[in-house]
Design brief:
This protein has 6 helices and 15 strands. The chain is an alpha/beta fold. It has a 5-stranded mixed sheet with strand order 2-1-10-5-8, with no helix packed on it. Strand 13, helix 3 and strand 14 form a beta-alpha-beta unit. Helix 3 packs across helix 4 and helix 5 runs antiparallel to helix 6. It is globular. It comes from Niveispirillum cyanobacteriorum. Pfam families: Lipase_GDSL_2. One of its GO terms (molecular function) is hydrolase activity, acting on ester bonds.
Length: 403
């Protein structure tokens, strides 16, 4: 007897609103049932809450109806490990607002190699990734902000273009406050017809991204019409890491060309991104170069290979110097004590700079920039008091790998 087909559409209703399966605030996630609120994060007054649905790997269009019949609401939505989807949706009492966005869901599993062929059957995730929401068999949604309320939810599997991200801790989906990276802010700036698959991870280098089978994971699904963003350098340049160090003049460009060639072989569009600066100011208030010749190596390879370049290194320098030594720390994690990793505000600024780079490129991706996105100039960034993003309920004092 053939196995029952997995569903590709799920509908839920909360507080009696809409169609689908009725869900009460007391229903915690049950793998057998396949949905529910995450333990410890069920709805309670105006606190953030997390709702998960067991789904196969893939891209999903999520449609949420936000609002409350009895009170005004303000809701922001994040997915998986705090990928920002919707920000600050306000609804008066008794009014509802329906929005859609795309979420990418993945597991560590890889298609097994043929008999006697080298390879592996799973990404070699590190100990800090075990149990994280971006490496499981669930689609998890976080509802946060000052008064988060969801009335109805629909999830449908879709085939849409995908933007893949390969990189390190400045790109990855940081799983907990107060850290954040630019990759997890991107979806909120793009139209709801493209997925962002963030495969970046803290501490990664181009070598470890290959040996850990993370590049294999991307290559197992990337296809014509997709895009691959490539940003490495923070860890590749560490001579103290002999197994993964690459030289800026020789091996670093060679590895960049490997990523480019692998994407092109599958019909995808590779894009190189220079590493953002660390927040190191000199006595005159200018950012010092903590990346040596590595950003120039990226620029050179992009020119020689005819690959689009987003110069986040240059744009981050403009942003930090305009903010200045006194304000710039407010864009960084751990109360500004960390000069490398960002908080929500800093991650949003860098993501917005990346999107500004897309906008002035010839990439097909530029058609997916939200038309209502306000203009952005790295030399005139909004200040931290003008850009308050909602915090997630998951917090950690563990610093990112590679710090």
């Amino acid at each position: 007897m053939p196995a029952a087909a997995e569903p590709d559409r799920w509908e839920f209703r909360f507080a009696g609103q809409g169609a689908g399966i009725p869900v009460t605030a007391s229903e915690l996630y049950d793998p057998a049932k396949g949905y529910g609120f995450e333990p410890g994060f069920a709805p309670e007054r105006d606190k953030p809450f997390l709702f998960s649905i067991k789904v196969p790997e893939g891209n999903y269009r999520v449609t949420v109806t936000l609002g409350n019949a009895k009170a005004k609401a303000r809701t922001s939505v994040k997915a998986e490990s705090r990928r920002l989807m919707l920000w600050g949706v306000e609804t008066p009492k008794g009014r509802f607002d329906t929005r859609s966005f795309i979420v990418n869901v993945r597991t560590p599993t890889l298609p097994p190699p043929p008999p006697n062929a080298p390879g592996g059957t799973a990404v070699r995730i590190n100990e800090r990734e075990v149990g994280k929401l971006h490496w499981d068999d669930k689609l998890t949604l976080e509802f946060a902000d000052t008064a988060p309320h969801v009335a109805a939810l629909r999830v449908e599997k879709v085939d849409v273009p995908t933007l893949y991200l390969a990189g390190d801790s400045t790109v990855t989906d940081q799983p907990a406050e107060p850290g954040a990276s630019w990759g997890q802010m991107l979806t909120s700036m793009l139209t709801p017809d493209i997925a962002v698959a963030n495969h970046a991870e803290s501490g990664e280098t181009m070598k470890s991204f290959i040996t850990g089978l993370r590049l294999d994971k991307i290559l197992s699904s990337i296809k014509a019409g997709d895009t691959l963003f490539i940003q490495f350098g923070h860890n590749d340049s560490k001579t103290a890491w002999p197994q993964t160090y690459v030289d800026a003049a020789t091996t670093y460009p060679a590895y960049l060309r490997v990523f480019i060639a692998e994407a092109r072989r599958r019909g995808a569009v590779p894009v190189l991104i220079t590493s953002p600066h660390r927040r190191n100011f000199d006595a005159s208030g200018h950012i010092t170069n903590s990346h040596g010749d590595y950003p120039d190596a990226v620029r050179k390879v992009a020119a020689e290979e005819g690959v689009a370049l987003i110069d986040l290194n240059a744009m981050s320098k403009d942003i930090y110097e305009v903010l200045g030594p006194d304000v710039a720390p407010r864009a960084f994690s751990n109360g500004g004590k960390d000069p490398t990793h960002h908080n929500n505000y800093g991650a949003w600024l860098l993501a917005r700079a990346v999107v500004a780079g897309i906008a002035v490129s010839d990439l097909p991706l530029k058609s997916h920039i939200r038309p209502d996105l306000l203009p952005f100039d790295p030399r005139h960034p909004p200040g931290p008091d003008a850009l308050i993003l909602p915090e997630s309920p998951i917090r950690s004092d563990v610093t990112p790998r590679g710090n």
